[in-house]
Please model this.
Amino acid sequence: MRHAPHADMPRLSICIATFNRGAFIAETLDSIVPQLAPEIELVIVDGASTDATREVVERYAARHPRIRYLRESENSGIDADYDKAVGYATGEYCWLMTDDDLMNAGAVARVLEALGDDPDLVVVNAQVCNVDLSRPLMDRFLDFAEDRSYPNGSERFFTEVANYLSFIGAVVIRRALWLERDRASFYGTLFIHVGVIFQAPLPGPIHVLAAPLIRIRYGNAMWTSRGFEVWMFKWPGLIWSFAYPEAAKAAICAKEPWKSFRKLVHSRGIGSYSMTEFARLIAGTGDRRHVRRARWVARMPGRAANAISGLYCLCVNRQARATAFDLARSPHSTWLSRLAARSLET
Model:
């Protein structure tokens, strides 16, 4: 059901859920604040940060009346805090912006233009950079040369865009649509927005903007330390829960990616997989052959796994710039992975 907006309703609410980002959020706000206008509001939900986040954000809120800062008494998790931010918002649309990445100049104006025909969803492309934003790793996450439009949340939209939507900052969604869909079932997934979008096909049009409007700090996500669990279990579990054909879901990710020897070795090489993850996530699952292999990789020397994966990037997959970056900054880093990162950077 589509709701008619009130005359005094902001056209767009930029919604940020944050936790302990005092070292990054000022730069994020500096990229957003110059783009605020009367039809824009910025809503920041702080999940009880224990660092300087509060002091940083309050300084901006005191100077800019379009910023609303809401500090929670306890941390409810990233999914619940984004849901709260949309609930607190008053705009017709909500842009679920991240708390450490940067908006490019003109990004808000471009999104407002894309909202001109009242779509249900706008997806914003991004450039992927290293953590300090000094080097691009991917010029465009979505390799789209031109904007694309979809009449609804079709299977084609799912297969072409869902993998990118693991990045929440890509999402600009009609607020009424968000609020009328199930959200609580997706608390704890780390990807509530994906659950909202794909739990049932969106009824109205979707626009995907090809030009990057955001710069992502790759490897700086709050859950980076849990990367193995996220990408081997949480993300595929979510994708495979949707009512799309199995072939479409397989195009996004394998149902049980942890069974891939290559992925296990890569995870061991970047330092996200060890006997700790094996015991907690794998030991009691799957057939004995896959469990034995997963145990063997967990016991593999990390530097050996790193060198093997670096060689793979050098000789087989020379498009894997982000993968090589992960390997080069791993605690198991070797000269092979550092060579791969330098080689793919140029």
About this structure: The mean pLDDT is 92. Residues 12-217 form a domain with the Spore Coat Polysaccharide Biosynthesis Protein SpsA; Chain A fold (CATH 3.90.550.10).
